[in-house]
Amino acid sequence: MATQKVILPASGFSPLSMLQLGATTYQIDKGNAVTVNTTTDELGRLLGLGAIIAPLSGTTAARPVSTVIGHRYFDTTLGKPVFWSGTQWVDSTGTAA
């Protein structure tokens, strides 16, 4: 189980929505980030609802340590986007970043 920050989309949810993940219910204010403890399957469900995994950008040192495959993160230290391959962060050419 990993801790992830997610942002629900502005449309399709009431201003305050309840979200059940496993045994935990979260109250989520659409458009604002919330930290959830979630498995990869639950994170996939959130993405299917249109959620965005946060953070979307930051330094190399601040990158999430585990996330879903394909998570895009703009690395401000490197000045370019990097992507989670499932085992490591790579740049658009597939080179470890």
Silhouette: elongated
Number of strand elements: 9
Give the low-confidence spans. none
Helix content: under 10%
Structural class: mainly beta
- How many H/I helical runs? 1
Q: What is the domain total for the residues? A: 2
Largest sheet: 4 strands, mixed
Instruction: Kindly estimate the percentage of residues that lie in beta strands according to DSSP.
Output: 35-45%
The radius of gyration over CA amounts to: 14 Å
Element string (H = helix, E = strand): EEEEHEEEEE
Structure, briefly:
The chain is mostly beta strands.
Written overview of the protein:
There is one protein chain. With 97 residues, the protein is mostly beta strands. The protein folds into 2 domains: 1-54, no CATH class; 55-97, no CATH class. 9% of the residues lie in helices and 41% in strands. The strands form 3 sheets. The chain has a 4-stranded mixed β-sheet, with no helix packed on it. Strand 8 and strand 9 (89-90) form a beta hairpin. The longest helix is centred in the middle third of the chain and has 9 residues, at 40-48. It is elongated, with a radius of gyration of 14 Å. The chain starts with a strand and ends in a 7-residue tail after the last strand. The relative contact order is 0.18.
